[in-house]
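Example 516.
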Amino acid sequence: MKKITLTLATFLLTAAAAIAQTVTTNSLVIHADQGKFTISKNIYGQFSEHLGHCIYEGIWVEPDSPIPNTRGIRNDVVEALKKIKVPVLRWPGGCFADEYHWKDGIGPRDKRPSLINTHWGGVVENNHFGTHEFMDLCDQLGCDAYICGNVGSGSVQEMMEWVEYMTSAADSPMANLRRQNGQNDPWKVKFFGVGNESWGCGGNMTPEFYSDQFRRYNTFVKNYDANSVYRIACGANGADYHWTETLMQDVGRRMNGISLHYYTLPSGDWSKKGSATQFEENEWFATLRRSEEMDTLIQRHSEIMDKTDPQKRIGLMVDEWGAWYDVEPGTNPGFLYQQNSLRDALVAGITLNIFNQHCDRVKMANIAQMINVLQSMILTDKEKMIVTPTYYVYQMFVPHHDATFLPAELNCEDYELNGQKIPALSASSSVDSTGAIHVTLCNLNPTSSASLTCTIQGASPKTASGQVLTASAMNAHNTFQDPNAVRPEPFTAVKIVNGGFTATLSPKSVVAIELK
Ligand code: AHR
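Predicted structure in complex with alpha-L-arabinofuranose:
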């Protein structure tokens, strides 16, 4: 009996010591009196491509479908997306954009040509979702349109006519064709991309050649009437700084924005990226470490841009980013369908905090992709729909949309694994038009809680509340059988102390705090 008692006591002492060791101490100083830059809501943008089940089934089901829809667009999906306030939607690709001929996607649907989507899965593209359907989707979501034009295999005339078709109010051939197809008033097209990944699937061009192409195509992207197009040039693949350097020199202010594409692969190897759900801590660590590289990429591209654009008039548009894993077993490899776990919530939280921190230069970002493809918000299976952990992060970060970024200093412990280290915490903060301060935090460490003391200079909030997204397993994810395995809960481990706050962040969590 004695022996058992001693053993139990020893066990309890050891457990208490272990618990004590797994809480780290960290501090954050927020300068509420130094806000200068707006966090563009467009940082929270989305991307939808004719790829796998993103458009067809994910969004478009045809007007006569038994799945409830409005003019062919799924009601459940629109309703869910409205809650995350999608500000801008990029379409029709991606690689698909440089193979897309917009005239195939207008007019009576039963007369539109069917083609093969050679880039993605070799499936039949019936063109039933075209310009009118996309604009209807934007309208239903209440978001701006970001159209990506075809430079790779399309003509200058084709691009010029598309812009005229969409945005001209004149009595002109393309505007009249639009009217004939049922849309009297021109639409607003706020953002227009001149090609996609022109260094790769968009034509394998050199930056010098693409710069000339941009100058030529862009000349014919006209501003009709009240529509002023924000012109986005194809930017670099990750760390290709020469691309940015060349475009800043050769294109300069002819572009309003330049894109950047960066995907997070657990392994860093395109031939074997890693599974979305079957992984151990080493892959968790590697994925989050690679997500943090976004910070270096933005800093270095921005430094190059600063040389000729110190006033930061040209936006850096990260119009493709996110986690990219091996496809789910048994699915079409060309459909890029992957599950989305708590790890993806951390990838999203870390990356969105980085974008907020660089909001003086980053004017838009579009996670790839909105539904059923790569790091998506929503997964569908015929009439069923679930939202992912990444969706919830977007919901928790909504208060940052168009809020004023508040500079802050974070002092945090490292998360160490196998001799490698990354900062264990990530944070960003903003103040909205009502004076409420929002702080979003990630604890990357899957085994240690983090206790955080936050001092706020220039404000003294009286109340703190929040939400936390976490789960017991690193790979926890929502399924059609268990759609609520990962969802936010009220965050109670926060309290106001001396006009700042203290909080305890659970291991592997994303937290959003509101201070009033
Ligand atoms: O998002 C999937 C693909 O990734 C896009 O079509 C392309 O632009 C990128 O390579």
